[in-house]
Amino acid sequence: MGPRKRVIVAGTAFGRIYLQALARARADYELVGILSRGTAYSRACAQHYGVPLYQSVEQLPDAVDIACVVVRSGATGGPGSELAQALLRRGIHVLQEHPVHHREIGACMQAARQGQAAYAVNTLYPNILPVRRFLAVAEYLREQQGLAYIDASCNSQVAYPLLDMLGRLSGGLRPWTFAPVQEATGGHPFTSLNASFNGVPVSLRIQNQVHPQDPDNHSFLLHRLEVGCESGVLSLADTHGPVLWNPRLHAPRDSTDRLIMAGPGSERLAGPTLVTLDRQQPGSYHQVFNQLWPDAVIVALGELCRDIDEPARRLRSGLWATEVSMAWREMNGLIGMPALIEPPVPACRSGRSFRARPWTPP
Fold first, then answer.
1. Given this structure, which CATH class describes domain 5-122?
2. Domains of the chain, residue spans
3. Is the pTM of this model over 0.90?
4. Packing angle between helix 293-309 and helix 314-335, nearest 10 degrees?
5. CA–CA separation, 99 vs 336, rounded Å?
């Protein structure tokens, strides 16, 4: 990848994940500063990583290659996109954390052209290792057999990256369509709607609920995905794995029209009904925050560096980000604003407690 890229991180809330990523990838990137409003936490972060704290773009030195903008964009009421544009005009390449409105993406792409810089939106979750494994296997199945359907569930907070995943699964977002929403009733937490991406039928279930004082918590799940094809169903049980394969049940019939369940002719039934494709079992949420998410940021930075080295890629990256954002906006227009909920802190139950629970067959 050439000499180490000199990187600043703007924002220290979710920006903590980016700081951890850069610490894990010192061979390729050098953290040279933090851009923030100067809060006590930001000052502590700068001291911890041994880098200067800057409070404006004008204060930044010329020797900066990449800026990771991890500040809320206008789509969520923040100044992140204006900050990204100021950096791009200075010729600093920008990786901006999602979500970003498609008009803001257009403005950032224009600023990137003015500064001859690369710009990309990081949707994070498609670059998480189990998701990448799921997408790779699904791509193989799509190329070999085509996809019969996609079934997807998520919380509305992470619907933006879900649409990125759906586009990758389908081999492209366009043309896309959304059918009328089936409103959640009777206290049901999920809103359902059907869609189509690049000709692949998609069923969506969105937990369109948010706790106004605690928006990052109280999701029943982040992402759950499955794709069906001629030979079986590939599933991503959770954003962080595992990836599962269910071969399709198909038993031949004998001369009396009964299913052949054993013996000659039933060889295809001898394999397991479920296969785990991950090499490792899912870890703890500590590992998610300290390893899986930072590693996903490193993947996104690697893609940005390819755009830096190959300017012909930049327009394609920008158009993809624009399509994801446009599809997200259209879907949000259909499902409406999240319902406000205020549940208590959920009870803590580990898988071990269920495995240890005594059970006697009837």
1. alpha beta
2. 5-122, 126-288+331-340
3. yes
4. 130
5. 17
